[in-house]
Structure formats: C-alpha cells, structure tokens
Design goal:
Structural class: alpha+beta
Number of strands: 9
Shape: globular
Largest sheet: 4 strands, antiparallel
Strand order of the largest sheet: 4-7-9-8
Strand content: 15-25%
Order of helices and strands: HEEEHHEEEEHHEEHHHHH
Length: 238
C-alpha cells in the first residue's frame, strides 16, 4: 500500500508516482503534475485486455468511479490512434497540455466537469450527436462517441466524422488548435485560483504537501475496496 509518509510529504509541483504491472495484461497508473501545473491521473491498460468481452464497458465504469472520487475538470478515454498533434510542426506539442488553450480533442469517452456543462449549456451537451451522453453526480457530463473505443480502427472514417460533428456542435473555438493567437472559449475553472495559490506556495515552500493529499484517505480506501481487481494488481507489484 502507499505509505502515509510518502502521501503526506510528496512535494507539490514535482510529484509523480508510477505504479506498473506488466503481466498478465499490462497496467500502469501515473499520478503527478504535467508541465502546465495541472494535477493529473493517468490509467493505462493494454488494448488486448479491453478487446475481450465487455471489458471496455467495465473500464468505462471504473473511470466513472475515479471521476466521482477526484472530481476533475476534464478527462477522457482513448486509444493511441485517436491522438493527434496540433500546430504547424508535428513536434511542436501535443494538444491538451493546458486547458486554458482549449479542450484537447474529442476522444471515445469525454468527461466534462460542471464548468464545461455550464459554459456550453445543458441543452447543447445533452443533445450532442454522439452514441450516449450521461449527467454525472456533480453536474458534469460524460459522452461516448460510439459503442466501442475500437470503432476508430474498424470504421475510422465514420468515427472521425462523428468526432467532427461533435466538435462543430460544441463549437470549434472551445478546442486547442495549436496556435497561441487563436480565439479560445474556456470556462471559469473551479481549481484555477487554487492552482495559482499552490504554485506560489510551491515556489515559496519547497516541501509543501501535494494537492492529491487533500483527497480524504477514506475515499481512496473506499475506491480501492470497490475496485479490487485493479487495486490487487497494483499492490502485488509493490
């Protein structure tokens, strides 16, 4: 298990934890800060695992539970082929590095925090030309482009057309184009002021606690108990 000392003492702004299990299915969980100062949680699984039976649906339910626990501003589920670079040069940067530049793209599953639902309007969000849209407990929303993330491989043209239709429905100005002078529509983020304060504290106090430590330990314990398969896979490698 994660030691309470590490949980308490990890340094804000430089925290990055990697939990990995390579066999039998391939699993990695990365918790840390990106280059723009946002706290992120990434869960990676091998695509062969999701291709069996209804595991992609189980994984989707797992990520919905993670959303409930962390209450993020944004999240997504994708396979590598959905990822697209932005900018005039393919090495410039990936989209989505900073939500202030806009949403990164439309992927298979897309989690929008309540600030995005407020910005777009509930009517627009829940009338998306998508496979399914669901209201979340905190006023946010999640929508699926299609029934399976692998539709981008079996029907790439159809999948890309649905992505384009969704982008147009929400408004292209809400997405990261890769150009700094492009007009961007962004919401008023819940955590933006907190993020600025944390950055100031990090610069002034090198040993400030990580923001993830603010998630009550009981909530993490409940999440682990309700998702024992992934929890046991992580613990067995520690």
């Amino acid at each position: 298990m994660i030691s309470s000392e590490k949980w308490r003492d990890e340094q804000t702004g430089r925290a990055i934890w990697v939990f990995e299990r390579k066999y039998p299915d391939g699993l990695a969980v990365i918790i840390g800060d990106n280059m723009s100062g946002y706290r992120t949680v990434h869960v990676f699984v091998h695509r062969d695992y999701l291709a069996v039976d209804d595991r992609n649906k189980e994984f989707f339910q797992l990520l919905k539970e993670l959303y409930r626990l962390l209450r993020p501003m944004y999240g997504n589920i994708l396979v590598r082929e959905m990822f697209r670079q932005v900018g005039p040069h393919p090495r410039q940067r990936p989209s989505g590095m900073n939500l202030q530049w806009g949403l990164p793209d439309v992927f298979w599953a897309n989690f929008l925090g309540p600030e995005y639902v407020e910005m777009f309007g509930s009517e627009k969000v829940f009338s998306l030309p998508c496979y399914e849209a669901e209201r979340l407990h905190d006023g946010g929303a999640v929508f699926l482009v299609s029934s399976s993330p692998f539709d981008c491989l079996t029907d790439p043209q159809g999948f890309d057309q649905r992505r384009l239709d969704i982008t147009r429905h929400l408004g292209a100005e809400a997405f990261d184009t890769g150009y700094d002078n492009s007009p961007v529509k962004v919401p008023k983020f819940r955590y933006e002021e907190e993020r600025k304060v944390e950055e100031q504290r990090r610069l002034a106090t090198p040993h400030e606690k990580d923001i993830l430590a603010r998630v009550p330990r009981k909530e993490w314990q409940d999440w682990i108990e309700n998702n024992q398969t992934i929890a046991l896979a992580l613990v067995s490698e520690m």
